[in-house]
Task: inverse folding
């Protein structure tokens, strides 16, 4: 140890130069390192959500949960499996060992769920698999509130969502509180009876006119041309013109016996901001992105878009995680400066200015070395 210390003392200029270089490299690393509110940690828990509108809890357990459990229990590394059967829904929570391989486990889960789908009843919606990662929680929530028609609120929120999703550091901008739009067909029973049309015939006609048909291609010898059949309902006018009955004198279309109008699905969630109806946009940043820069950019985009929003619609922010990060970093800087000041006062009073200066500067240099090695290792703050 004495030889080691003597080597450094004998090369004081080299050591001081190296300390200065490391210090400024640490400062540059501290300024460049991405800030995050939560660490990028893969939690060994997955959730499988399976929806079946109208199914009872008993049937959900018997027809959905049990076939899924039968396939999933053979997953390698599975530690615990918990299932919940409820009205319209079935949910399965899978917990694995801590040393799991996320990509391999996720691929195996998808494979097992695909195998189990052959045994669950038709009409079940596509199962959704969710993984848990604290770094993928929302870092900012944009609120759009106002006592205006629901469609107006949805239109402005959708425009803002599309704008935010263009930001490179934003992984996802998820809208909450909205209802999915749909076209509602209100049939006149008297007209159906007059034309002798049954309900199952009506449903069959609409379903058959809303199919994706793979038409293939045509090879003429001089080239190959793809063939497209317009089989999907894309606009309201497509529904109006669906033929029901026809002959050489004319035909009956859907709009002749039904009223077709735009509406929303039934309300399943409710959002209020200061007592007014509202929609929210949850901002999830990309892994490794700087939370401070991301929220600052989102705020700038929202402020620019706010100029084109009517005065009776209020755009605001909630749950800004970057403020927590800023407070933590400010506390860190204040603590370092306080420590340097107190140490230098004590050491200078006892050992002199030179020794006190060396000891005092050792504290920030140690911190900057830490940030320098964090940057080399690919970590974030």
Result:
């Amino acid at each position: 140890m004495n030889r080691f210390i003597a080597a450094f003392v004998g090369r004081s200029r080299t050591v001081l130069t190296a300390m200065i270089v490391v210090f400024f490299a640490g400062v540059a690393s501290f300024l460049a390192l991405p800030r995050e509110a939560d660490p990028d940690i893969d939690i060994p828990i997955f959730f499988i959500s399976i929806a079946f509108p109208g199914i009872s809890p008993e049937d959900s357990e018997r027809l959905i949960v049990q076939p899924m459990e039968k396939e999933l229990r053979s997953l390698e590394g599975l530690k615990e499996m918990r299932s919940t059967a409820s009205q319209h829904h079935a949910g399965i929570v899978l917990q694995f060992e801590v040393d799991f391989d996320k990509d391999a486990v996720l691929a195996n889960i998808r494979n097992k769920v695909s195998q189990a789908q052959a045994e669950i009843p038709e009409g079940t919606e596509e199962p959704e698999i969710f993984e848990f990662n604290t770094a993928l929680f929302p870092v900012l929530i944009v609120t759009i509130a106002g006592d205006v028609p629901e469609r107006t609120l949805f239109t402005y929120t959708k425009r803002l969502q599309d704008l935010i999703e263009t930001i490179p550091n934003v992984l996802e901008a998820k809208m909450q509180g909205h209802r999915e739009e749909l076209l509602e067909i209100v049939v006149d029973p008297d007209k159906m009876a007059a034309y002798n049309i049954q309900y199952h015939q009506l449903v069959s006609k609409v379903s058959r006119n809303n199919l994706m048909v793979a038409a293939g291609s045509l090879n003429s010898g001089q080239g190959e041309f793809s063939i497209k059949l317009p089989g999907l309902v894309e606009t309201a006018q497509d529904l109006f013109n669906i033929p029901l009955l026809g002959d050489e004198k004319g035909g009956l279309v859907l709009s002749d016996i039904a009223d077709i109008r735009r509406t929303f699905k039934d309300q399943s969630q409710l959002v209020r901001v200061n007592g007014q109806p509202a929609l929210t946009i949850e901002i999830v940043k990309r892994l490794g992105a700087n939370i401070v820069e991301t929220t600052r950019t989102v705020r700038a985009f929202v402020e620019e878009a706010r100029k084109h929003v009517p005065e009776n619609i209020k755009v605001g922010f909630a749950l800004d995680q970057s403020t927590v990060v800023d407070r933590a970093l400010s506390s860190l800087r204040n603590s370092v400066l306080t420590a340097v000041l107190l140490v230098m006062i004590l050491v200078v009073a006892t050992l002199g200015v030179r020794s006190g200066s060396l000891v005092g500067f050792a504290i920030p240099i140690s911190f900057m070395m830490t940030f320098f090695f964090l940057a080399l290792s690919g970590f974030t703050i």
Notes: The chain is about 45% helix and 25% strand. The two ends are 34 Å apart (CA to CA).
